[in-house]
Amino acid sequence: MTHWPFIAASYALGVLIPLVFGIAAFTRMGTARRRLALIDPRANRPGANSPAAGSLAQHAREDA
User: Fold this and answer.
1) For residue 26, what are the contacts with CB-CB under 8 A and spacing of at least 6?
2) What is the number of H-type helices and E-type strands within the chain?
3) Are 50 and 59 spatial neighbours (Cβ–Cβ below 8 Å)?
4) pTM, two decimal places
């Protein structure tokens, strides 16, 4: 028996394991984002959905 099956298996695991970890992290991030959206008190503020909310550009426009 040659060593090539073991080398192929190690390369396959080296690709598959990080891929599985990445997919799991991506799904956990989506779940965490949805859970945070349910409890985030900042979502109820006026202007919270505007892209410049809380930025210096918005404060400059309000002062003008």
Assistant:
1) none
2) 2, 0
3) no
4) 0.57
